[in-house]
Write a structure and sequence with these properties.
Elements lengths: L6 H9 L6 E9 L5 E9 L6 H16 L3 E10 L9
Parallel strand pairs: 2-3
Antiparallel strand pairs: 1-2
Length: about 90
């Protein structure tokens, strides 16, 4: 875990983004002590098929992560009700 990053606060910020119904498998780690990587599975409503909605969610997450010096971001979108094999 990179120093100075509180995953509870980060998770709270992400949950506050419109159209996100849940999240799991949130991971953040340091690549070299200066740059960090992030991955998460996001649950969105089945009707969130519009490209603009997905792009908006990704941009808001990027804004939150930029201030934490996260350089590499991977997001998997799961539609509500869809089975995720490794859901916590």
């Amino acid at each position: 875990m990179p120093k100075g990053i509180n995953t509870n606060i980060l998770e709270e910020k992400i949950r506050g983004i419109s159209s996100i119904e849940g999240l799991h498998h949130l991971h953040i780690w340091s690549i070299d002590g200066k740059e960090h990587a992030f991955s998460v599975h996001l649950e969105v409503p089945y009707d969130t098929e519009k490209r603009d909605s997905i792009v908006n969610i990704k941009n808001k997450i990027r804004e939150h992560l930029k201030e934490l010096k996260v350089a590499h971001i991977t997001i998997q979108f799961d539609f509500s009700g869809e089975s995720c094999e490794k859901k916590e």
